[in-house]
Prior knowledge:
15% strand, two-stranded antiparallel ribbon, Rossmann fold, five-stranded parallel sheet, 8 helices, alpha/beta, single chain
Amino acid sequence: xxxxxxxxxxGAGKGTQxxxxxxxxxxxxxSTGDIFRRMYSKRHPxxxxxxxxxxxxxxxxxxxPDDITIPLVKERLSYEDCKKGFILDGFPRTVQQAISLxxxxxxxxxxxxxxxxxxxxxxxxxxxxxxxxxxxxxxxxFPKDNKCCGKELYRRDDDDPETIGxxxxxxxxxxxxxxxxxxxxxxxxxIEGDDYPERVFENIFKLISLPDHYAL
Length: 216
C-alpha cells in the first residue's frame, strides 16, 4: 500500500507529479483544489462557498476552513479505489489537518517539493489547465494552440495574479509548520522541484519505491 502526501508551495508541481504517480502506481490522485473546483463548476453549495469566501480572486487566496475540508477528504478516502493507497495533493496544509488525517488515514510517505518564491510566481502566471481532463500546462509543455481535449485552456481562479501574494503568505504562515511536523516524525523527504518534470518524477519514484523499512 502507498499512502503518499506531496507538500510544496503553489507552482511547485504537486499536481503534475501526483497525476504521474497516480498513473504509475494505479492509485487515485486526490486534490482538494480539484474537488472544490469541480463542485463549483456544478454549482454545489460547498464549491460556491469555497470559491467566493476563500480561494477566489475576491477572497485573496485563503485556505478553506477545516470544518469544510476535513469531512470532504475523510469521505473521499473511504471510497473503494483508495483501499490500495492514494496520493494527496493540497491536504493536509496545517498541523491540525495532519493530526485529524491520522485519525482516519495514516500516511506512509511525505515528499516536500521545494521551489523559490520567484519561480513559483513565474509558474503560476504561465500555467493553465484543461477543463475536461484537468491536465496542467506550463512552460515545459504548453500547447501552441492553447487547447487540450479540443477546448481552450483556462486559468484557474486561484491562479489569478492578484491572489498569488495571498497564497504564498498563507503557505508560509501555516504549511511550513506542517513541514516541521512531518520532519519531526521522521517521515519527510525533500526533493528539488525546480527542474524538468520528468527528472523530478524520477527522483520521487526512487523514494516511493523504497522498501517499507526505509519508510519516509
